[in-house]
Amino acid sequence: MIKLKPNKVYFVGEIGINHDGSIKKIKNYIDIASKYGIDAIKLQLGTPFRFTTIENKKRFDLRTKTMIQNSDLDKLAMYAKKKNVLLFASPLSEDYVKLVADKFGVIKIASGDINFLPILKEAYKSKKLTIISTGASTIKEILDIFKIFKNKKKVILMHCISNYPTEIENSNLINVKYLRKKFGVHVGYSNHVLGTTACEVAIIMGARIVEFHLTDNKHRKFIDHKISLEPKDFVKLKIKANEIIKSIGKKRKRQFFSEKSYKELRKGLIYSTDLKKGTILKKSHLSYARPAKYLSYNSSKLVIGKKLKKDVRKFNLTRIKDFF
After folding, report:
1. Would you give the end-to-end CA distance of the chain in angstroms?
2. From CA 100, how far away is CA 128, in angstroms rounded?
3. How far is it, in rounded angstroms, from Cα 220 to Cα 234?
4. Maximum CA extent, the chain
5. Nearest to 189 by CA among 201, 33, 181
């Protein structure tokens, strides 16, 4: 099960069909996830003729070629569990929703199905956590989701731009904050921007689940490889994510511990002139300069009218012990 925490980013490596239908390659991706700290690997599952028209022969043939047999899914889920990696999937046709729910316990609904009621309703019936990408959607379409999903705790929205690749200026990452505030649910980010910058900004915006396409070699032919991160890219992203989380910190209520030398930065009381022992201190005898080591600039009432018990020099700090 996916449990999001404010101080940790949950990373999902989308391998889609980057595995070319090879169980061996899927296991290799699970191994990569285990080695580098990717929390989950996501597949795409579905019946080809329910997903794409046969008239689009190239796409239909690709989906047919890369199908994973249902009998292999249990083995893959067990293998992932041994590696401490969650394996789950996007059901790209309605007949696969129950299978995905039963075998993995988490359902991811692709942006293209955000208004496809057969998949949405099956996902709701499963009572499993459902992650829904919002690429190319309208606010009304997102609102309509919650007419089906009454329990918002079972829904995570993913801000997503349905363009492959997405230019950085089109990533619109302010929507991570906007969708969270508007719908009152966890909002993550599904990335199609080259590199890791957009993922980092999404984390700054509050995304605590980030999905990215994962490959072992981004120079392979299929377009998903081009927009994917290799393990070395993910290592950089994870380091950045940890730095971002650390940098967010806590809300200010007082001085932070790291600011313990703050008095060095503030103005304190100093003598504006040389004064002799026995002088009764007046306001005109005082001025201000850093640091506020003994008396802050607004502490003059503590010393005005007091008698000096020793000679003092101008521009030196004022101390309570200077007075009777």
Report:
1. 70
2. 10
3. 18
4. 103
5. 201
Give the structural domain span for 266. Answer: 257-322
- Do 169 and 278 lie in one domain? The reply is no
Whichever domain contains 131, its CATH number is 3.20.20.70
Count of positions (residues) in the chain: 324
Cα distances from 194 to residues 122, 158, 163, in angstroms, run 33, 18, 11
User: 3-class DSSP state for residue 288?
Assistant: strand
Token pair for 105: 């316990």
The number of distinct structural domains making up the chain is 2
pTM: 0.88
The residues, any chain, with a CB within 8 Å of residue 243's CB and separated by 6 or more, are none
301 and 244 in a single domain? The answer is no
CA angle 149, 154, 157 (to 5 degrees): 80
Mean pLDDT of the chain: 95
Of the listed ranges 8-17, 92-101, 248-257, the least confidently predicted one is 248-257
Mapped onto helix, strand or coil, the DSSP state of residue 266 is coil
* Residue 223 confidence class, pLDDT cut points 50, 70, 90: low
Residue 3 lies in a domain: no
CA distances from 74 to 28, 33, 67, 104, 231 (A): 16, 18, 15, 9, 26
Q: Tokens for 197?
A: 């910058």
Tokens linked to 13? 């490596």
**277-314, pLDDT tens digit by residue?**
999 999 999 999 999 999 999 999 999 999 999 999 99
Q: Are residues 92 and 189 in the same domain?
A: yes
d(CA 191, CA 50): 26
Check pLDDT > 80 for residue 205.
yes
Cβ–Cβ under 8 Å, residues 322 and 309:
yes
| Contact present, 68 and 87 (Cβ < 8 Å) | no
Using alpha carbons, list the distances in angstroms from residue 101 to 190, 230, 310. 21, 28, 83
Following DSSP, what letter does each residue of 165-193 receive, concatenated?
A: SBPGGG--THHHHHHHHHH-SEEEEE--B
